[in-house]
Amino acid sequence: MPDIAGIAKHTDIEICKRSVGKLLDTVGKLDSLTILGGELFLHPHWDEFVRWCIDDRRIKNVVLLTNATIMPSNWKVMQNDKVVLALDDYGDVSLRLSELKECAKKHGVNYAVYRHTHWFDVTGYSLVKQTEGELCRKYETCQIKGCWNISDGFLYKCTTSFYKMKYMVRKNIEGNSDFIDLLHQDTDAIRKAIERLSGKDYLDACKYCAGTGNENMIGVARQVR
To answer: Reduced to 3 states, what is the DSSP secondary structure of residue 60?
Structure first.
């Protein structure tokens, strides 16, 4: 939701509501919706969107993901059985992890701590020369695919696809695009687009992705040291 290195500004909360609402109209319900950034708690209206998600009965669970560096401005909105505060533990980089855990206990907020040991460096933006078979195998073994993302009214199949399609590869909507326009299509069109995207052997973004092999595994927080 918040600013990402000066590239993306704070997301419009109304666009978030319309996008998620349209997806719900299409699929009927969501077992879990994760809200993240950047850093979620930097957004001035994060709690407004959380309240909206809580109030929609079609969303079963609302997960708020934070890197444990910022204290939330509103604990009350998280005092709901549907909400889980997910605290990423990046070691000494997660400066306020202990404080967040204590405050969550104090305010009766559900929380979980996730200790991470690595991440995958898939940030290269050059075309990777691979055969159709190699692309299919890379997608089949990918550890990121399947994490559907919504950003600025578009639905993406994975976070890598989101960044590469939005900021680098292309922004025009085509019939075989890796993303789906949620704001300007009816539910039937969106449903068909989801089925099409789910059935692809690999994404266009895979052509620009290094993959999630061991050679691309990076220890957490190395980029800030």
So the answer is: strand
